[in-house]
Amino acid sequence: MIVRKVTDRWMWVTPPLAIVLLVFTLGQHPPGAVVAVASVVLGGAVLAAVHHAEVVAHRVGEPFGSLVLALAVTVIEVALIVTLMAGGGEKSATLARDTVFAAVMITCNGIVGLSILFGSLRHGIAVFRAEGTGSALSTIATLATLSLVLPNFTTSAPGPEFSTPQLVFAAVAALLLYGLFVATQTVRHRDYFLPVTKHGVVVHTEEHAEAPSGRATLASLGVLLLALVGVVGLAKVISPTIESGVEAAGMPHAVVGVVIALLVLLPETIAALRAARRDRLQTSLNLAFGSTMASIGLTVPAVAIASYWLSGPLVLGLGASHMVLLALTLVVATLTVIPGRATPLQGGLHLAVLAAFLELAVVP
């Protein structure tokens, strides 16, 4: 009981502590001891974010709970991208593209693969709704192709870039498609995104602890946002140390972006794995694919607006090897989703694609 009380207090104290530490370290080059403290606090903020996200999810139910966490993480991530682009000059031309693609690979292969592996190893077979998950995947395929592949084949602007009218179209299309999916997920066909049992019975309500009060839910929502700001901000604070380590190891600079994306997506990863352990793979997939869609659907409009006052080009088109990985991800994910049931093999396939992405990031 005492341990539980200490843990509960830690979940409330860590996010404000992360914000205080962020205020004193942002924009500076802190010494190694401060970076070590920031790393510990960042880990605590990640765990706190997962805890408070689960409180909110328990109150509002699925798929709203997954949507809250995915949307909150992405909004803060987009704000970070735009901030970095504002101070990055020419070097930030590919920042949005690299960050979004890293998020796609980590969520669609890393989170999905680990969730399927955990769920199927623990429960024999992982079950989910193919109707809802398939519509999410088709939305991701459309968003990714229009935003990250099409710029390589246009001729109005030099290089893998959109002209201004094309960028406006891509931004509006991304925003509208994401909004249409959210409406489908939460209003018209909500049942398609609810967890199911092995016998195909939809789980409308969870049979465990009593739902928190409205006041407790709002408090957890506020602390959740603080925790996510702390996670993203402290990831930025420790990024110079990560960058130095990457350079000392002789690895490409793109590895830094991958490491930062892994840190930022930690809350969703842990939440997805916890859901998979409870035999709620649909919740895990809602988190993974929802994060992917939010990352593309919100980042592209944000950088399109920001590009009007930011100097330098905006490169969105993927390189050849990354387009191959994107195509392979979509093919494997489609074959995973169609049956509505998955085994450890499917989890291993997704993790193999993620491993290929990480390998190419280190050794292009």
UniProtKB/TrEMBL annotation:
Tell me the organism: Streptomyces pactum
Matching InterPro entries: Alkaline_pH_Ca-Antiporter, NaCa_Exmemb
Give the Pfam families listed for this entry.
Na_Ca_ex
Q: Where is the protein found, in the record's own terms?
A: Membrane
Q: Which residues form the Sodium/calcium exchanger membrane region domain?
A: 34-186, 220-360
| Membrane topology type | Multi-pass membrane protein
Q: Which named protein is this? A: Ionic transporter y4hA
Enumerate the UniProt keywords alphabetically.
Membrane, Transmembrane, Transmembrane helix
Span-the-membrane segments of this chain are: 9-27, 33-52, 64-88, 100-121, 133-154, 166-184, 218-238, 250-273, 285-310, 316-338
